Each structure stands twice: as C-alpha cells, then as structure tokens.
C-alpha cells in the first residue's frame, strides 16, 4: 500500500479504490482535496456536521469518496477523474483553487461545491457570487486577500530595518495577486521585504535557507494548500530560528506557531456540507450563492512567544480573539 493511501485509510477518510455493493446503493459524494487527511481533520469533521444538519449521515445516507493530493497539484486531474468515474451526485472541491479548477475540468455537468481562497469570479469558476449560473457554487474564504493585513500585524510586532521574509507558493493560482498585495502593503509603510517562493519540498528547503542567510527578522507565510500540508515544518522553522511568523489559520498556532489572522475554515466547511445536502435534495448549484465570511479571528500563542523570547505588545494581545497559553 502506498503511503498516501495508508494515511487516508488510517484517518478514516478514504474509500479506496471502490465501494462495496451496499455503498453503491447510496448517493456518492466525491471529496477532492489538494491537502492531506492529517491536516484536514477539523474541516472534514465540520463538513460532515453540515451534511448531517442537512439530513445526511456519512455511511448511513451517503457514501463519501475521499481523494488527497497531499500538496502535489499535478495529481489533482487524475484524482478528479477517479471521482467522476464513481458517478457522484455532488463533488466537493476542497483545499483551494487547485482542487476547484481540477474539478471543473473533469466534472462537466456534475454539481460541484468548492472552497477557494480568492475571488471565484476572477478565476472563472462562477459568473457572479449571487448567481453562480453554472454547476458550481461554494465558499470564498478570502484567505489570499488578507495578506496585507497579516503583514501589517507582523510589522507592528517587529518594526525592524532588516528584511521581513515573505513565503509564497508560486504554483498556487493566487500567487501573483499575493505578491502584488504584499509588495504594495510593504511599500506603503516603507518596510523592506524579501519574497521567496516554494512549490515543492526542495524549493521550500532552499527558500527557508535563503531566509536564514539574509537574517530575516520575521516571516509571513502566505495562504497556500501546499504550505498547509507542510505546517509542522514551517512551525518548526519559526521555533528553531526564534523569529515571529504569522499564518493564515488557527491550525498553525494550535500546533505551536506564533500568530494567525484569517477566517475559521471549519465554519466554511460546515456550510459546504449544508450546500451538499441541499444539492442532494434537488437544489441546483446555480441557485445557491457563493458564501463569503463576515468574521475573522486573530490568534496569538503566548506559550510559543515565551519559548522564542518574543515580547507581544499589550495592544496586540488586547486585539486578539483568542490567546493560547
């Protein structure tokens, strides 16, 4: 058994490669993700919760087929075709734009519910947010549109003359937008930055070495499904180098990272589960508006700060929605 299959099986999320006869009688929901089972446990639980709210229990009313690309976007078209071969009633495209675009290409005519970080209109998934006008709908988590806010928080914490490191996944569809947004925000406050790019493990190692070489005083890790699958490595780099970093989601901070600012992904995936249930009941995706978050969370890990001997200003602590001690 391949490692990726074993991980999925251990996580309890994979029906691989086919279903038993009794499962075939149930509606099939395909779940395509650019991430891994291990870093997706919270969002999968939230998705199942939303599905249950809509009246569908996994294993009882529906069968869910999971496929995980584990940060390798090139595998997504093949995995999407595997799911299409199961004739799903609805396909969930999780883990950002790479999954959504692969699902769109493979699942012509199959209802799709996606989760993306940027604007789904701009990348061609739907015609408009209120009226998708096609076989796709979902949520836009705004993860890629908050990079300037994250940079600002990091600058407040560490207003230094030395460069601030910015890590971007060049293969992520929103990387150009992220780069322009970060450069503009840095220019506005006259903050020197060093942008490094990584699309695989070898490039990530090189990028982190570059940040060490230039003596970066802080790090902004831009939103990316690939970086989510390498969360432990990035948090470990922050701790070893004792430099403050800010990430897109609480998951990093719960694992030992210093700070995060963004939406709560489980809230979004609960909505995806609800939408999947509505589609199973007969509602067309074109009638379900794309949902955008209205609340954001700023999380600080003071235990990590103490370990790295980093002082968190009182005004930042006061603004935090959650302080992990």
Provide structural commentary.
The protein has 325 residues and is an alpha/beta fold. Helices cover 41% and strands 17% of the residues. Strands 7-6-8-9-10-11-12 form a 7-stranded mixed β-sheet, with helices on both faces. A 5-stranded parallel β-sheet has the order 2-1-3-4-5, with helices on both faces. Strand 9, helix 11 and strand 10 form a beta-alpha-beta unit. The chain is elongated and about 60 Å long. The N terminus is likely disordered.
Write down the CATH class of the largest domain. Answer: Alpha Beta
- The number of helical runs is 14
Range of strand content: 15-25%
What's the arrangement of strands in the largest beta sheet?
7-6-8-9-10-11-12
Number of domains: 2
Give the strand tally. Answer: 12
Order of helices and strands: HHEHEHEHEEHEHEHEHHEHEHEHHE
Examine the secondary-structure arrangement and name the CATH architecture of the largest domain. Answer: 3-Layer(aba) Sandwich
Structural class: alpha/beta
Computed over alpha carbons, the radius of gyration is 20 Å
**Unreliable residue runs:** 1-20
End-to-end CA span: 40 Å
Helix content: 40-55%
Q: Biggest sheet, open or closed, and with what strands and sense?
A: 7 strands, mixed
CATH third-level topology of the largest domain: Rossmann fold
